[in-house]
Model the fold of this input.
Amino acid sequence: MKDKNFNIAIAGKGGTGKTTFAGLIIKYLTKNKLTPILAIDADANANLNEVLGVKATKSVGAVREESLKEIKNFPSGMSKEAYLELCFQEIVVESKEFDLIVMGCPEGPGCYCYSNHVFRKYIDILMENYKVTVMDNEAGMEHLSRRTTKDVDILFIVTDLSMRGLRSAVKIRDLTSELKLNIKDVKLVINKATEDLVPEFYDFIAENNLKLAGIIPSDDLIFEYDLKGRPIFNLSDNSKAVVAVENIIKNNI
Done:
């Protein structure tokens, strides 16, 4: 990861722990001084800020809704694009180690073509200022094609120890091809592993040409932190999950 503007995306069906994985990637990057970092929470069920331990007060979705209502009353002498960019600047959550953007809710009724174009353009420009961008996505990848035109260097698809999770991973991988997204590499991450994988699991991975990036063991510390409302970002470096994610990043990026 020598070059600037390295872009990482994470996807997977709900409940697989992809947001925790995204948070631990950011933890690894900050620990190894691979900064500055831009975190993008593109999941409608946004909680990456909680994993990272920062407060997000506004989302792109919320500002987009507000701008649609207020666009007729924006300041005189200011272009519509300048007004939207000013609104967008209020969204970026800044911290010492990273910055965060929360995409928020999907479009409601109304025409968002212009505001979506401006926000997409602004995100692309913003990404140029960071060494690494980490984007936490929903299972479907259509929104990734709407959020940014930038290439994704690697997409990690997270699954748990279930065949349903694996089948979902195959669907996501295939969807990226159908949408012709600019993704250079796609790899599978198995999360919450409690035991050795059964042969059928490995057989399915091989039969469907999934590339396995690594396995993250189940970690009681994550459950404990989540229960107490503590940021996963602050997990001990000795945590089993932290160590596993470090190895995944070292071996795949």
Q: What stands out?
A: The chain has a mean pLDDT of 86. The chain has one domain: 6-252. The radius of gyration is 19 Å.
